[in-house]
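Researcher: Let's continue the batch. This sequence belongs to NADH dehydrogenase, and it's 325 residues. Same format as the previous ones, please.
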Amino acid sequence: MEYLNKLIYLLVFPGFIFTVIVGLFLAGLDRKIVARMQRRRGPKLTQPFYDFVKLMGKDTIIPRNANKIVFKIAPIIALVSICIIPVLLPIYNWTFIGGTADIVVIIYLLIIPVVAMIIGGMASGSPFASIGVSREVVTMVSYELPLITCMLAVCKKAGIILGQGTTYSLSAIANAQQSTNSFMFTISLFPAAIAFLMILPAKVGVAPFDVAEAETEICEGPLAEYSGLHLGLFKLTHNIKFYVMSALFVVLFLGGIGVKTNSLELDLLINTLILLVLVTIISLLCLSIVRGLMGRYKTHQMFKFYWTVPTILALLSYVLVSFNL
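Model: Same format as before. Here are the structure tokens for NADH dehydrogenase:
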């Protein structure tokens, strides 16, 4: 029975099916909001669903000079890794598959889709892909340091509250916020929360930090030679990131927002709705509106930005937490 529950968690809720539906919905909402900001009507909210289904039916063209095995397997690895993360995220007081080092696992899982795109782009043998790959590497190097520092600051704060030193368990981080207050509203972790929100566009891969894909410059960069099923899997992974990264922010910094009743099932339903509302707000404010207002950064501008403002804010939070402020 325990293995059956875990299989349901992975495949249905909060795993693959639920994550895909929410991710595609947020992507459709993002396109609608940006269109309205640009005084366009925009597509339907369900357009990403149609796009994905359409790509599934298209022919898949593999370049003659490509490494065919790597080219085909890269999008599958990217999608599987990003779909595992929601199962590790607690929803207020409900933990699906917990552990003592969830944060460490999530850090690795978040890197895998990026690495898969880099490897897939290199395997395609396209010059446009090689340019996109180099930009993707620079992007990853730019935001990984402040992102990990933000997470470490949260882990240290939760450990201090629980008297455990530094904890890497997401359920422990959620419990710490429920016993005190959401970390975003504490002085020591507010800079880290701002830094995390600044990192969201680059991690998801939207403007102004979509320098790797850059459709108008290098024809989708690493994805230039992808089509059909494989392109659809990469696009689906991109859409799911809208949900995964916003939900991760909610767990790390807004884990104290939720309700607790006498029924676990009712708790799960209500807190899932609260999570979806918070995720939608964060996605709109930090991804859609930012994408509609700002143009694309140059690669060196992005690198300089992330190694100054978000890095300084993340390190400031870590120092304040270390002094127990």
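Researcher: Any comment?
Model: The radius of gyration is 20 Å.
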